[in-house]
Amino acid sequence: AVERTLSIIKPDAVAKSVIGKILARFEQAGLNVVATKMLHLSEELAGGFYAEHKERPFYNDLVAFMTSGPVVVSVLEGENAVALNRELMGATNPKEAAEGTIRADFAETIDENAVHGSDSAASAEREVAYFFEDSEICPRTR
Ligand code: CMP
């Protein structure tokens, strides 16, 4: 089925100037960018986004990293978008990510792992709505 998923190009990848290379991978795999924006997350916005990790030992470092520089937040649309995006990203830990995946190619550590992608259809719905109004999403007309 055609799905939407949320993608974040994290501060490490923005700093490396690989925004275009990462978006190109999504497009080459058949995922359409139907919304996108750059923003520098506040602690409140980053903390709210990762609220489910609040009790995890890495939470404070995660929020500090995600607020350390600008990010690019996008909605990707396509057949099986949630799983396909996760396949393109590779494992959370870049050291375990399959060859040719975004994290294998552009990230070094689990804390600074270049991209985030929704992990389920339910998270995707919540995460897309967290960053985008319906009116900001622009489905293809041609
Ligand atoms: P992300 O998909 O953005 O979701 C939460 C992030 O926490 C994750 O990517 C990692 O960058 C980071 N993180 C740091 N340590 C861990 C860990 N042990 N398990 C999962 N995520 C971690």
Automatic annotation (TrEMBL):
Pfam families, per database record = NDK
Compartments in which it is found:
Cytoplasm
User: Which terms does the UniProt entry file under GO BP?
Assistant: CTP biosynthetic process; GTP biosynthetic process; UTP biosynthetic process
Q: Which cofactor does it need?
A: Mg(2+)
> Which positions bind ATP?
K10, F58, R86, T92, R103, N113
The UniProt record lists the Nucleoside diphosphate kinase-like domain at 2-139
Tell me where it mainly resides. cytoplasm
User: What keywords appear on the UniProt entry?
Assistant: ATP-binding, Cytoplasm, Kinase, Magnesium, Metal-binding, Nucleotide metabolism, Nucleotide-binding, Phosphoprotein, Transferase
Q: What class of enzyme is it?
A: transferase
Where does the record place the catalytic residues? H116
Q: Which GO terms describe its cellular component?
A: cytoplasm
Give EC number(s), comma-separated.
2.7.4.6
- UniProt GO MF annotations: ATP binding; metal ion binding; nucleoside diphosphate kinase activity
Which superkingdom heads the taxonomic lineage of this protein's source? Bacteria
Q: Which reaction does it catalyse?
A: a 2'-deoxyribonucleoside 5'-diphosphate + ATP = a 2'-deoxyribonucleoside 5'-triphosphate + ADP; a ribonucleoside 5'-diphosphate + ATP = a ribonucleoside 5'-triphosphate + ADP
Family, per entry: Belongs to the NDK family.
- HAMAP family to which the protein is assigned, alphabetical: NDP_kinase
User: What interactions and quaternary structure are annotated?
Assistant: Homotetramer.
What does the UniProt function comment say about this protein? Major role in the synthesis of nucleoside triphosphates other than ATP. The ATP gamma phosphate is transferred to the NDP beta phosphate via a ping-pong mechanism, using a phosphorylated active-site intermediate.
Q: What is this protein called?
A: Nucleoside diphosphate kinase
Q: Which organism is it from?
A: Endozoicomonas elysicola
- Taxonomic classification, please? Bacteria, Pseudomonadati, Pseudomonadota, Gammaproteobacteria, Oceanospirillales
